[in-house]
Fold this protein.
Amino acid sequence: FSSDGGSRMHKIVSVTPNMTETMRNVVFIMIGVAVLVFKRHYSGPFESMVYAYAGNVAVSFAVYFNALNAPVKVRYKQLWAAGLALAAVELFEVFDGFGIMSNVYDTMDLVANAVGVMLALVVDSALGFYEIKCSGRFTRTHYVVPDATKKKDSN
């Protein structure tokens, strides 16, 4: 985009998420944590699958929303957060918990991690928070096209 006003579109960027977006992300992080903690109390259909993979889905979901809170300036923050979250949880899985936590490697865990990140991305997109204008500023990158009916000053 040119700074001389020659462009028809202007980029508006906010690096730090506002309080509304941050709190929304924290709520989704806590939902992921709750699923992780309470999955062992589940009894019902597909109980063994829930016990084996719900933790992976829940943690991946929470890591995505945690990544959204990072104060970084990127064009596609949702995709950036999804990539970061997927990389973090997959590396944790492949490197056996980085030696910090005990982890049992299972190739289906990698699929469950991807499902958790995709679920988070779908939930985030469905809520439409990337288009909400809060406190007079946009929370994510937007492109605004100036009104074409306004005449340019020829001076």
Q: What stands out?
A: The radius of gyration is 20 Å.
